[in-house]
Amino acid sequence: MFDWLMPFFYILSATGVAEAPSGFSIEQVLQPPLLYACIGGLILFLFLLFLLLRFLRKRRHKKALEYHIDEKDKYHVRLEAKNLSALLPPLLEGLGGKENIQSLRSENRRLKVGIKDYDLVKESCIREAGFPGLIRPRKDEVQIIVGEDADELKNRLGQELSLS
After folding, report:
1. Is the confidence at residue 10, as pLDDT, over 90?
2. CA 40/CA 59 separation, integer angstroms
3. N or C, where is the chain less crowded by C-beta within 10 Å?
4. Alpha helices in 66-122 (DSSP H)
């Protein structure tokens, strides 16, 4: 019944690690219930080890994804100059003139301007006017980070474009 274990005992006795006594019988030492308990314990140990490692990995991953910013540490984007009428001429110059503007819309704190010619947009001119940032997601659109005054600036720029 336990013939499959005999090579291990032969290896151990050949290396001098263990020697079987003269009246040694494997059936006397390893009864089937004890063998089943050992195998079951090993399977249970491996299963619990798997669950523990999986839980720790998920927890580490969740902690890496957790990102909390306190209110005092948030960066609030605002325009330096509150006079929006004074910002319109450099903004129009930076966008390539009135003829280069196709559409206007504001979302959140950004002014999204549809443009005709991508090469006419001068980013340095827009930044010098005091706008915190400029994003170019596509060849036909420029997004200007304005802050809380995005809607008001869109309305003023729309009025300026409709007057001409």
Report:
1. no
2. 29
3. C
4. 84-94
